[in-house]
Amino acid sequence: MARKKVVDTKVDLVEAFSEFSRFKNIDRATLMGVLEEVFRTMIRKNYGSDENFEIIVNVDNGDIQGFREREVVEDHELEDESRQIPLSEALEIDEDYEVGDELAEEINFIDFGRKIVQTAKQTLTQKIRDLEKASIIEQYQEIVGEIIVGEVYQVWRNEILVIHEDNELVLPRTEQIPKDRFRKGDTLRAVVLEVDMRNNNPRVIISRASPLFLEKLFEQEVPEIFDGLITVRGIVREPGERAKVAVESYDDRIDPVGACVGMKGSRIHGIVRELRNENIDVISFTINDVLYIQRALSPAKISSIKLDEEKREAQVFLTPDQISLAIGKNGLNIKLASRLTNYQIDVFRELEMDEEDVELEEFSDEIEAWVIKELKQIGCDTAKNVLELSAEELVRRTDLDQETVDDVLAVLKAEFEDD
């Protein structure tokens, strides 16, 4: 039998729902499904059921059309008004209708009443917002560990807001390089570090201080790393100050360190500038722990090393002129070397054959253990090591106060004066 469709007036809900067509991050099919479900909910509230209704959604312009389908029956055979329509009523719509035809009549959602329409709008608003949040989470979870380029939108004391593809990302103070100085409108590079929900809102954390940022910069600047010919085996850094990068080549013909540094430093210079002149040591990775520690303590030249592999401790012996190089400014070189090699590294001064000296542990009755430990951390493991430094230098390089340093120096000087 013939199926006819009668259209009364085009239901245009652009004014009420047009704002939802602007969401670009939401899959079209998903958006249409949400819209249809919301309007079917309206129909169920108004008619009690939506089984014989058809919803047509036009996402692009916000048009929503609904059609109620009923079977034409003889007037005296009418049993279900929601699914059937009397012939006499159908003929008023179109005189060509016959018993058995399917009549599809457009419904006007505005006629459902303000309360139902308003509830639908609120429901739709919430569903769309939830979808957009989920879309942002999914979008950035896929690029965690990748570098993005964004524009500084707002600079606050504890964080910087960055706009990336119309989304707001957060660069916390703890993830900034201490020497970073950004203003609104500046462009910055950072790595996507973490994506989560906070207070029911997506929060994307980016970082410039993470070792991952440095690794991705090397990947961008060194084609051999991007192609997989060279692998980054370890990175440790003190943002803006110093970093150590261990690299390994799978091709014996490729010098991994040379490839990363580039001709006359051409490749690494760009990375150094991006990191606010961070000093970067690139070393060749090896499974030989002794050699690895030796390389990690560069530029210091090691005389000998004693390892305790079980405790992951290393005693490194150097000539006096190499100790300060091994320790580095503020103890940074030895600290990074320990983190890179996963060994607790202690440096010791190599004594000359005819040189008399006394290990600091010999003074444990007069100097507290934590003070001795503090001194050893800056390479002073013997009495003469300590006496070679001025009181001011000892205060500056350790966490000891002036009074403690003076007491230590007095004890050590007394030892040699007695001799």
List the helices and strands and how they pair.
Layout (H helix, E strand, L loop, with lengths): L2 E4 L7 H4 L10 H20 L5 E6 L4 E11 L10 E3 H7 L8 E6 L6 H28 L5 E9 L3 E6 L2 E6 L14 E12 L2 E7 L3 H11 L1 H4 L3 E9 L3 E8 L6 H6 L4 H9 L4 E6 L4 H8 L7 E5 L4 E6 L1 H8 L4 H10 L2 E6 L19 H8 L6 H5 L3 H7 L4 H17 L1
Parallel strand pairs: 1-5, 3-4, 12-13, 15-16
Antiparallel strand pairs: 2-3, 3-5, 6-7, 6-9, 7-8, 9-10, 11-12, 14-15
Helix pairs in contact: 2-4, 5-8, 9-11, 14-15
Relevant terms:
five-stranded antiparallel beta sheet, N Utilization Substance Protein A, Chain:P, domain 4, disordered N terminus, OB fold (Dihydrolipoamide Acetyltransferase, E2P), single chain, five-stranded mixed beta sheet
Biggest sheet statistics: 5 strands, mixed
Mean pLDDT: 84
CATH superfamily of the domain at 3-138: NusA, N-terminal domain
Number of strands: 16
Supply the CATH architecture of the domain at 3-138: 2-Layer Sandwich
Report the sheet-strand fraction: 25-35%
N- to C-terminal distance? 122 Å
Poorly predicted spans:
1-18
Notes on the structure:
With 419 residues, the chain is an alpha/beta fold. Among the domains are: 3-138, N Utilization Substance Protein A, Chain:P, domain 4; 149-209, Nucleic acid-binding proteins (OB fold (Dihydrolipoamide Acetyltransferase, E2P)). Helices cover 36% and strands 26% of the residues. It has helices at 14-17, 28-47, 87-93, 114-141, 211-221, 223-226, 256-261, 266-274, 289-296, 320-327, 332-341, 369-376, 383-387, 391-397, 402-418; strands at residues 3-6, 53-58, 63-73, 84-86, 102-107, 147-155, 159-164, 167-172, 187-198, 201-207, 230-238, 242-249, 279-284, 304-308, 313-318, 344-349. Strands 1, 2, 3, 4 and 5 form a five-stranded mixed β-sheet that branches. A five-stranded antiparallel β-sheet has the order 8-7-6-9-10. The longest helix has 28 residues, at 114-141. The N and C termini lie far apart (122 Å). The relative contact order is 0.06.
